[in-house]
Amino acid sequence: MPQPARLLDLTRLVSRLGKGPLTGVDRVELAWAEHLLQGDAMGIPLFALVRLRAGFALLGSGGVAAIVAQAQGRSALPEADLLARLMRRDDPARARAETLLRGHAIARCLPFGLASMLARYLPPGTAYFNMGHANLAPRVFAAQRGPRLVLLHDTIPIDFPEFTRPDIPAVFARKLAAISAGADLVIHSTAAARAASERHLMQAGRVPPGIVAPLGVVVAAPGAFHLPGLDPSRPWFVTIGTIEPRKNHALLLDVWQGLAARLPADAMPQLVIAGSRGWSNAAVFARLDTRPPHVIEAPGLGDSALSGLQAGSQGLLFPSFAEGYGLPPAEAAALGVPVFASPLAAVREVLGDYPVYLDNTDSYSWMETIERAVTAGRPTDRQCFAVRGGRRPWVPPTWDSHFNTVLKAV
């Protein structure tokens, strides 16, 4: 029999190339690509599948390595070829990414040819890994000739449709139906996410076998950052995430407005919003457009700069309404930075008693807590937050543990 191989779906990661810093789901797909490339070097062949505008592309390990290099910022995307410019007129970055794919593709096919393409190039028993919530469709599952593994990050589009674009819940429901019918193993990052996901999978008709494998938390070493408008001589707090309704930036703007009414200007902390503007958040965008005092938008920060910004802060603020895992508070905790967060089940499961938990609808409690935190002194003047607060230092989960848990179950 041919040696077993692995097929990693990189549709999500490719869609993000050339569009700024990666989100949490993007980072997970990238981590899997890096790990499976190591397996390829040890004799387990790696391939990648990417959905194109008009079909699919199949890549070998060299193509995966090229995508990883792009995602890590180690190389630049090529100029878009004519076909890409015609097919992706509305998305120049994606046009360049698909030009890269065609340069590395082993094969390409139209949608109806997917099963034949995979049968021709992949050995029987090849395991299919979908870690990014993209390309989850019956046709894709049916074309596989080995175990089909899916990482289901959360079910927020169905549980909290008010926090997504109007078309997303229906799209996500179709993805859940495909997972229910076609997945052989569903991976969950927390037990809380598993419980929510399996309720919906049961409603879809079938609950595939599942495991809980916490995501690895790795942070870049704190580096220098230059942020116009930030006064480094005064304390600041950081919130990280796309500016969308679910992340609850409105509460933080209310808090800063309240602090400004009760504190003198020279005693006001600064709020750094590290994230790009998202969707369905016109009221928050309008408030930010007025340039509220002591509030700074900081989209596009690199990993090292973001770590440096957090390390010098008074803490990470995370008043989110819903999370499947909560990477920003986990990464802050890994840096030893104070965390102030909503008491969400997933965040509690991952971080235990490390954060200070605050009701995500009670702006007064957030204001009082932040004001007290400002008086605690600059980070260079304090002991480790975890020790000083009576908490043990938090030990982050590792990617090796995550990979081992999943691969042992294949």
Protein model, in words:
The chain has 410 residues and is of the alpha/beta class. It folds into two domains: 220 residues, 3-Layer(aba) Sandwich (Rossmann fold); 153 residues, Rossmann fold (3-Layer(aba) Sandwich). Helices cover 42% and strands 14% of the residues. The chain has 18 helices and 14 strands. The strands form three sheets. The protein has an eight-stranded mixed β-sheet. Helix 3 packs antiparallel against helix 5, helix 9 crosses helix 10 and helix 11 crosses helix 16. It is globular, with a radius of gyration of 22 Å. About 3% of the residues have low confidence.
What is the gist of this entry?
By secondary structure, the chain is an alpha/beta fold.
Helix content: 40-55%
What's the quaternary structure here?
single chain
How would you state the average pLDDT, rounded?
92
Query: What is the tally of helical segments?
Result: 18
CATH class of the largest domain: Alpha Beta
Uncertain residue segments: 380-390
- Can you tell me the CATH topology of the largest domain? Rossmann fold
- Residues in β-strands, percent: 5-15%
* Strand order in space, largest sheet: 4-3-2-1-5-6-7-8
- How far from one another are the termini? 18 Å
Which structural class do you get from the secondary structure elements? alpha/beta
Give the CATH architecture of the largest domain.
3-Layer(aba) Sandwich
Number of domains: 2
Could you give a short account of the major beta sheet? 8 strands, mixed
What is the approximate shape? Answer: globular
Radius of gyration: 22 Å
Number of strands: 14
